[in-house]
Amino acid sequence: MIDIVHADITCLTVDAIVNAANSSLRGGGGVDGAIHRAAGPELARAATKLAPCPTGDAVITPGFRLTASFVIHAVGPVWRGGARGEAALLRRAYERSFALAAGGDDIASIAFPAISTGIYGYPKRDAAEIALEVMRANEGRFDRIVACLFDEESARIYRELSGARE
Ligand code: AR6
C-alpha cells in the first residue's frame, strides 16, 4: 500500500524513514536538518562513519531518538538541467533505499520525502513520477510505503499522479 501524506517525516510512526542527505552524511538543511535534530547527535556520529556516500546510493543507521527504528540516508542528485544523468541517479537513490530496507532489518513500513526536490532543485513533478514508479515496483515487499510530502504543492502533485489508486 502506498500512502500519500502531508506531514513532517520526523513525526511518522514507521520502521524506517529515508533522509534526503548529501554525500558527507553530516547533516544539512531541509529534511536532513530536521531528521538530525530529532534523532540527536548520535545520528551524525553513526552516519559519518559510513561516509562518503556517492550520489545515487544510500546507507542505513539506527534512528536513535526518532520513533522510526532506522534512518536510510539517500543521496539524490543536484538538478543541473536534466542532461547529467539526474533521472537515473534519482531512481537509483530510491532503489538503493528499498534494497537496504528489504535487507534483513525487519522493516515493514518505510517513509520517503521528495528526494532532491528542495535545495537540490529537481523539478517536483518529474521527481514524483520517478518516486511513485519505484514505490509501485516495491509495493509487494512492504506492508506500508509512505510518500511524505512537506509542502502542499508536492502533496497535490503526488495525489494527482497516483490518481484514484490511493
Ligand atoms: N519532512 C518531510 N519533508 C520535508 C521536511 C520534513 N521535516 N523538511 C523539508 N522537507 P531538501 P534535497 C521536504 O532540501 O533537495 C540538505 O542540506 C522539502 O519540502 O530537504 O534532496 C542535505 O544535506 C522537499 O520537498 O532535500 C543536502 O545537502 C524535500 O523534503 C541537500 O539539502 C527535499 O528537500 C539535499 O537537498
Please characterize this protein's 3D structure.
The protein is 36% helix and 19% strand. It has a 6-stranded mixed sheet with strand order 1-6-5-2-4-3, with helices on both faces. The mean pLDDT is 97. It has 5 helices and 6 strands. Strand 3 and strand 4 (70-75) form a beta hairpin. The chain has helices spanning 30-39, 42-48, 86-101, 124-138, 152-162; strands spanning 2-6, 16-21, 58-62, 70-75, 109-112, 144-149. The chain starts with a strand and ends with a helix. The protein has a single domain (2-162), classed as Leucine Aminopeptidase, subunit E, domain 1 (3-Layer(aba) Sandwich). The chain is of the alpha/beta class. Bound molecules: ligand AR6. Ligand AR6 binds next to strand 2 and helix 1.
Secondary-structure map with pairings?
Layout: E1 2-6, E2 16-21, H1 30-39, H2 42-48, E3 58-62, E4 70-75, H3 86-101, E5 109-112, H4 124-138, E6 144-149, H5 152-162
Parallel strand pairs: 1-6, 2-4, 2-5, 5-6
Antiparallel strand pairs: 3-4
Helix pairs in contact: 3-4, 4-5
The site of ligand AR6 has 25 residues, from strand 2 and helix 1.
What is this entry, summarized?
The protein is α/β, with parallel strands linked by helices and 166 residues long.
Mean model confidence by pLDDT: 97
Number of helical stretches of at least 4 residues: 5
- Enter the CATH topology name: Leucine Aminopeptidase, subunit E, domain 1
**Helix-strand pattern, N to C?**
EEHHEEHEHEH
Under CATH, the homologous superfamily reads Leucine Aminopeptidase, subunit E, domain 1
Main sheet: strand order: 1-6-5-2-4-3
Number of strands: 6
Name the helicity range.
25-40%
Spatial extent as radius of gyration: 14 Å
Q: What top-tier CATH class fits best?
A: Alpha Beta
Assembly of the depicted chains = single chain
Number of domains: 1
CATH architecture: 3-Layer(aba) Sandwich
Q: How does the helix and strand content classify structurally?
A: alpha/beta
Low-pLDDT regions: none
Q: Which small molecules are bound?
A: ligand AR6
Basic shape: globular
